[in-house]
Design brief:
Layout: H1 2-17, H2 21-32, H3 37-44, H4 50-90, H5 95-101, H6 108-122, E1 126-127, E2 133-135, H7 136-139, E3 158-159, E4 168-170, H8 175-184, E5 189-198, E6 210-220, H9 225-240, E7 246-253, E8 256-265, E9 282-291, H10 293-298, E10 307-314, H11 315-322, H12 336-339
Parallel strand pairs: 1-5
Antiparallel strand pairs: 2-4, 3-4, 5-6, 6-10, 7-8, 8-9, 9-10
Helix pairs in contact: 1-2, 1-4, 2-4, 6-11
Length: about 350
């Protein structure tokens, strides 16, 4: 009996002194293993009479259970301490970043895109999207621009080294999405298609090599140029306000006939002429025109039955005009002094 009490007292002291889970494991081996006092006491049972063996045997069993209990309790306690220390070590203090920088917000170009979509959805258009990596067929051929046609010079194209040379490219405009929409659904179609475009353009006050356009497409019966002009005018006044006017000037695009350039009063100088508008008082926002019958043919629509118009203009250019930003390059520069103002 005295020996069992001694074993229990040693176990309690040994475990209390263990400060890590590994030390608890070592103590457990010392207390319950082959060389432990408990195992030796078990061996001593052989020299006792049957009654003594039964009684001391029960004592030893109870002592073993008690020691296992002590080991379990000490291990759990130390595991909890170690977990808390680990969590504390791994903790990321985000309070400093939040305090200094404030919450984020959408970039001006994304916000402009959302606002433009809202204007057109309000006019009854649906929103569609297409891929930024395009085939030559969608970006050019289906739009009535065959290989080697001089009109390809209108878009300084970035080709990808993929497949046959000059077959896969970064789309130069959102017009290929017109083709995808016409392939995907039967008329009537009233859709706008915003997205990112790429050109080998030299950056200047009104050009950046990665920019955004929003394309518009209407295909229905009996659509005329009057509907196109009316849609452009309705858009201009609802987005820029009643003081900003639009004008259409004759232009050429292979996929529309007749074609026009769509310009608005320069919002920076209010029409008097400045560096941004090259002293003209007008800023070109995009191109437009009546969908060429060759394009309707390319997607299998009967040009006798269906007619329509299309337009495509710069989202970055819209943001620039609406917020009177003299130089568009700042949209790509991530200058927080600029971004914070928005
Ligand atoms: C086109 O891209 C035609 N796809 C537009 C069109 C669509 C015509 C449907 C007829 C029917 P253009 O290359 O002119 O046209 O570009 C249209 C507008 O995109 C420009 O007026 C301008 O607002 C914007 N844009 C073009 N290049 C850049 C650039 N590098 N940086 C910023 N905006 C640009």
């Amino acid at each position: 009996m005295t020996e069992v009490e001694g074993i229990l007292a040693t176990a309690a002291a040994l475990l209390a002194g263990a400060t890590t889970v590994e030390e608890v494991q070592a103590a457990a081996t010392e207390l319950l293993g082959k060389k432990s006092a408990l195992t030796a006491a078990h061996r001593g049972l052989a020299g006792l009479d049957p009654d003594g063996r039964r009684e001391v045997g029960r004592e030893l069993q109870e002592a073993k259970a008690r020691i296992e209990e002590l080991i379990g309790a000490r291990r759990s306690a130390l595991e909890a301490v170690e977990r808390a220390a680990r969590l504390d070590r791994d903790r990321l203090d985000l309070t400093e970043a939040r305090g200094k920088r404030g919450p984020g917000h959408l970039h001006l170009v994304q916000r402009t895109r959302d606002e433009l979509e809202d204007v057109f959805v309000g006019m009854g258009f649906v929103v569609a999207e297409g891929p930024e990596v395009e085939t030559d067929w969608y970006n050019f051929e289906a739009l009535n621009i065959p290989p080697a046609h001089p009109a390809r010079g209108m878009w300084d194209t970035l080709y990808l080294e993929f497949g046959d040379p000059e077959t896969i490219l970064l789309r130069t405009h959102t017009s290929p999405v017109q083709i995808r929409v016409m392939e995907g659904q039967a008329p009537p179609i009233y859709a706008v298609m915003p997205g990112r475009c790429y050109r080998r353009d030299t950056p200047d006050a009104r050009h950046i090599p990665i920019f955004h356009q929003i394309e518009g497409l209407v295909i229905d019966r009996g659509i005329s140029f009057a509907e196109l002009a009316g849609t452009i005018e309705a858009f201009t006044t609802s987005y820029f306000g009643p003081d900003i006017h639009s004008r259409l000037r004759p232009a050429f695009f292979p996929f529309t006939e007749p074609s026009a350039e769509f310009e608005i009063t320069c919002t920076i100088c209010k029409g008097s002429g400045c560096r941004t508008c090259s002293q003209t008082g007008w800023i070109e926002l995009g191109g437009c025109g009546m969908v060429d019958p060759a394009v309707l043919d390319a997607v299998g629509l009967d040009a006798e039955e269906w007619s329509g118009f299309a337009f495509g203009f710069g989202i970055d250019r819209c943001a620039q005009m609406r917020h009177e930003i003299p130089d568009m390059r700042i949209l790509l520069e991530n200058d927080v002094r600029f971004l914070r103002q928005l």
